[in-house]
What we know:
Elements: E1 5-11, H1 16-24, E2 30-36, E3 41-43, H2 47-51, E4 55-57, H3 60-68, E5 72-75, H4 80-92, E6 98-102, H5 106-115, H6 119-122, H7 125-137, E7 141-144, H8 147-156, E8 161-164, H9 171-175, E9 188-192, H10 198-206, H11 208-212, E10 218-222, H12 228-235, E11 241-245, H13 251-259, E12 262-265, H14 274-281, E13 286-289, E14 304-307, H15 312-323, H16 326-343, H17 346-359
Parallel strand pairs: 1-2, 1-5, 5-6, 6-7, 7-8, 9-10, 9-12, 10-11, 12-13, 13-14
Antiparallel strand pairs: 3-4
Helix pairs in contact: 3-4, 4-7, 14-16
Amino acid sequence: MTETFRVMIIGTPYKMHLYQPLKRHFPSDLQVDLVSASLGHRNVPLLSRRSGTCFLPTKRMIDELIRFRPDVVFTDSGAYAGWYAKFYSCLRKRHIPLVAWLLGDFWTEYHALFSKAPLRVKAAGPFYFFTWSTGLNFADRILAVCKWLESIVKSRFPMKNTGVLYQGIDTECWLAQENTLFALEHPAVGIVQDNNIFPKVKGLLWFSDVVKQMEDVHFYIAGGGPYTPLVQRTYSGLRNAHLVGRLPYPDGVRRFYLSTDVYVLPSGLDCCPTTLLEASLCAKPTIASKIGGIPELIIEGETGWTVLNGRSDQWVSKIRSVLEDPGLARRTGENARCFVAENFCWRTQAAKLSSVIRDLQ
């Protein structure tokens, strides 16, 4: 009889919908419970409304751990989830392995968030940093979402076991066909990017130089977030730039990808951007910034291209070459769809994570 291991996945609230496919693809000998990290905290009045990062712990997460009695805890929330897993190990009086999944460059994002925050929010910064870094330090294994980020983790936690687990994607959702498309003006370049992290948004702000040089091409920018007013001011004087705001997810976003001719991701900071995977599954040729983990998601010249930020001449040249060669765009898009479907589907990521979990037993 095969022994069953219990795995609790504690996920960031806005990522929960992405983890349902991960749960489905786990092998039958791993029993999975998926809970939101918000179960373990409540907001701090005045602070959480502004920064979204300051929380007080609650007993509900411990109650859930005691109910499910996991043998392994896996989380993408390095703060309280790590502390809860450590405390639960003490309650069980045996070591319960913790696997932490780091989805971004926490250190750069932390400094960007609190350096520009109001004083009352900035005062909570050291506490936030302490809970996150200590929570990560409790982990038996830290998985980074790309090789680039793993190198950063190794430099900060040289004694930790590390690995790479890429962001997974539900292929069925993005391979679905659309009967109607958005009425965009062509040639149309699509960008989907939330404006939540300033180092990331800086790439989009700089990209306005490219848009200025391509007056005959229409650029459609979807997304929202606290830095949206800054993006709006940057692009306000450009007639060929169209800011469409947030789109319904996933159906509206899928229609958007399919309505464009090429997908572009001008980012100042990224590890494993989901939008790049989504656009690839929609068979769109992709051109993205050569930063962070983005080059790991593209086979250069076969499934897409990466270009250095600041080289507007190269961006313009590459975008034009794709728009002016429908055959190249079609071949690259089809290659991208096959590459992403094979290497970044949740079935592949679930198999890799299952192997890590078994190694910890």
